[in-house]
Predict the 3D structure of the following.
Amino acid sequence: MADDSRTKVSFEFFPPHGAQGAMRLWSSVERLAPLAPDFVSVTYGAGGTTRERTVAAIHTIRERARLEVAGHLTCVGASKLETLAIARTYAKMGCRRIVALRGDAPEGEDFAPHPNGFDGSVELIEALSDTGGFKISVGAYPERHPEAASWDADVEHLKRKEDAGAAEAITQFFFDHETFLRFRDRCVAGGVTIPIIPGVLPIENFQKMKRFAARCAATVPLWMDTAFERAEEADASELLSLSIASEICDALLKEGAERLHLYTLNNPDLTYQLCQALGVEAQPMRLAAVGGCG
């Protein structure tokens, strides 16, 4: 019988580039699969640039780790027919979850719909809903989407995604649990009823994370600069990262978060340690031998 009190987690991976990247992805899956996540997701590069590698990674994870996988799908750089063909490919592999996103344009460019493509995430979600058979997750921004005109507009857009067929929303990462709670309250006030799952990023490399956060318009508290500078001097960066992530997750769980979606960046160790700190114990399992992830 399943333990309903067990902390529920899901993990995000990104598709590999080259043989070394494939082995790194598989090592991450091998390390984290015994934690029995609700599902794992595989991202989809800007402009669909990782399309083939995303499909290959999903196939490998499903076949060799036997995990439920959500494939990311975006509107960028592809026609409606091409985008829905990818969804059908996912379905043929047994992948019945999709993370449906508008997607980001290639760096330095503004988003513009493909001439024969979906004009945004709502239209994509509607098409996937009409196709049927998918559980659709969507993105949400606890610090407001950088292109949103206002908080109300941002919440209204999420409500439109729900009305189009979204089953849940997964947020961008953040470093103050109150940020998530305020956003969740705004969503409830705006009529959003789907579960809103907080996304948490264990900090594997502080400077790399800051660059990532800048691209995502996620706020990095000023105190972190000093804290990580001192931690690096004391060779305690990993301990600090684990402490920060554990504190955020504990607070979220106490406030009723239904699941935690952890951004692994294909670096499994901190995510594994965080899960153990949250009481997510590894389960005995045997994984098939790896032959490549794309």
Remarks:
- Strands lie at 9-13, 40-42, 69-74, 97-101, 135-140, 168-173, 196-200, 260-263.
- The mean pLDDT is 90.
